[in-house]
Amino acid sequence: MSAQKLSIETKLTFHNGNTMPQLGFGVYKSERGVCEKSIATALEAGYRHIDCAQYYENEDLVGKATMSSSVPRSELFLTTKTFNYSKGDTVESLLPGLIESVKKMHPAKEGEQPYVDLFLIHAPSSGPEGRQTLWDAFQELKKQGYAKDIGVSNFGVKHLETLKGEKPVVNQIELHCFMQQRDITDYCAKNGIVVQAYSPLVRMEKSRDETLVRIAKEVGKETTQVLIRWSLQKGFSPLPKSDTPSRIRQNAHVYDFELSDEQMQTLDGLEAHFHVAPWNVNCV
Hints:
With 284 residues, the chain is of the alpha/beta class. The chain has one domain: Alpha-Beta Barrel (TIM Barrel). The chain has ten helices and ten strands. It has helices at 35-45, 59-67, 91-105, 127-143, 157-162, 182-190, 210-219, 223-233, 245-252, 261-268, and strands at 11-13, 19-21, 25-26, 49-51, 77-82, 116-121, 147-153, 170-174, 194-198, 237-238. The strands form two sheets. Strands 3-4-5-6-7-8-9-10 form an eight-stranded parallel β-sheet. A hairpin with a 5-residue loop joins β1 (11-13) and β2. The longest helix has 17 residues, at 127-143.
C-alpha cells in the first residue's frame, strides 16, 4: 500500500464489500477508571476502530465511552470477541450471551437496533464441534442484525479450512515483524480474509532491537511507529494498545512517512517466531 493511499481514514474492504478502518485501538487490560479516558483520547486522535472482548471485562466501558463521544455511531467500528463455549451448548443457548455483549458495546436507545460491527470467535480452543457451534451462533447473530460482520481470532489454517458456512471476514492473530505467521497470512490473502494484528508493538519487548532502532532513526520516528507502519504497509490491520495519552496519539501519527522497500525487507528479515501472547493457533 502506497504512502499516498494510507491515512488514518484508510479502510480495508472485506470479501463481502463491507469496510473497516485499517488502524484500530485495542483495550486489552485497560482497567476501569482508565479505559473510558483512553478511548476518548483515541477518538480525539482520529481512531474510529475499537477492539474489545468479553475476556477483557470492559465491554460496557467501550459502550459508555463511544456513546458519550461526539463521534456518531455510524462512523465507529466496534469489535468484540468470545470463546465461551461449554460442551452441550447450542446456538439457542449461546445467543443470549452474545447479545448481552452487543448491548454492552452499543447501549442503543429504545427502538434502535444495537449492533457491533464485528464479532469474533476469540480462539479455536473449544475444539471442532465447539468452534462450529459458536460459528453457527454467530451466523444467527448476524442474521438477527446484532453483528454487521463475523470473523475469528487465533485461528490456524486447519481451523479456517474446516469451518463450515459463511466465510470469516477477519482472522485476528499475533502479528509483528518478529512473529509473522506467514502460513496463516498467506492463506488469508489467498482466501480474501483480512488479517488483524494484535500485539503489533511486541509488548515493547523488542524496543531495543538494533535493527529496529536503526530504521527508526533513519525515518526520524519511534520504534513503535515503525512497527505500526510496517503492519499498515503490509496491508494488515494493526491494533496498538496504550493507556498513556501521548502514546495513544503517537501511535496514530504514522502517516507522514513511508518505509522504503529496503527497510520493509529488512524488517521482514527479523522473523524470529517470537511469541508474546499465549494463544495457540495449533490446537486441535
